[in-house]
Amino acid sequence: MGKNARYLTLALAMAATGMLSAPAMAAEKTIGVTVPYFGSPFWKAGLYGVETAGKEKGYTVLKGDAKDKAEVQIEQIRSYIDKKVDAIIIGAADAAAVGPAVEEAIDKGIPVIALSVPPKSDRLTSFVGADNIGMGRLQGICLGRAIGGKGEVGLFAGPDEIWAKLRVTGFKNTMEADFPDIKIVAEKAGGTKDAGVAAVEWAKAHPEMHGIFTAADTMAVESINQLGASVEKIKVSTSNLNDDARTALENGKLTCASLQPAVAMGRDAAREAIAAIEGGKVLGRIEAPALLVTREKVAGYDFSKIIAPADYQP
């Protein structure tokens, strides 16, 4: 083989090697996501938003189900640190408990974006959340009008979490400002089962009660189920809309639900993460608008920004 032929062969080999190596050498961009519970329609929708927005920009999205356990979420965060992900998106299973692990990620230079439920840290890159006060206010307007602007209502405040407290604040402020003739005669905090117990107790103790505010959909469904026939005279409102709550709304057993656009929020969280990774403009805080759906509107309501497609599995 002549000298020129050998050079040509070498050049072709180098070019071929370069063509094969370039994609392999290109750094794969990865976002790690961890949320409290894949089974929740809200978190499923948020994950769908993150995943679709990430994939549109060529990112790999790793997903972790904390199964409502802080220790599981901590391990997921540390796994993402070990894998050297480019960003982490987290909906905290326990804000205080997972805070130190989040700080570890930040110390390693990984931007952390909070989705809906922020971990305890003052160094988050961004927070994407709902207007929970607005959600409570919309419930207040709906429930107040549904019972004719006067009478007695009960308030089930939900867990000792910031989102629930803000919804309660929005509801109470609305009652005070817009419905002075409505009196909150019973109030209780707790979980889903507690809501059903409270609803039955209130119906007996307050025969003139005509409305119940619940902080979240599972609590509304439990209240409706436990009230039985009594739900015909007691209007129940809630926030979020799982499948059972949606059925209750369609059947008229649930009066209305204030909503947060979970899919859109997930997409916003992914955009904030990608901006942080690529040196783009990070907004730092995004508050999604509160929405309202009633029985009259549910059949034709556009849920594309709120609920993941039925065939999506995280």
UniProtKB/TrEMBL annotation:
Protein name: ABC-type sugar transport system substrate-binding protein
Gene3D superfamilies cross-referenced by the UniProt entry: 3.40.50.2300
Source species of the chain: Aminobacter aminovorans
Keywords tagged on the record: Signal, Sugar transport, Transport
Family: Belongs to the bacterial solute-binding protein 2 family.
Keyword ATP-binding attached: no
Residues annotated as domain Periplasmic binding protein: 31-280
InterPro entries: Peripla_BP_I (IPR028082), SBP_2_dom (IPR025997)
GO CC term, one of those recorded: cell envelope
Signal peptide: 1-26
UniProt-recorded Gene Ontology molecular function terms: carbohydrate binding
Principal location class: other
Places the protein is found: Cell envelope
Cross-referenced PANTHER family: D-ALLOSE-BINDING PERIPLASMIC PROTEIN-RELATED (PTHR46847:SF1)
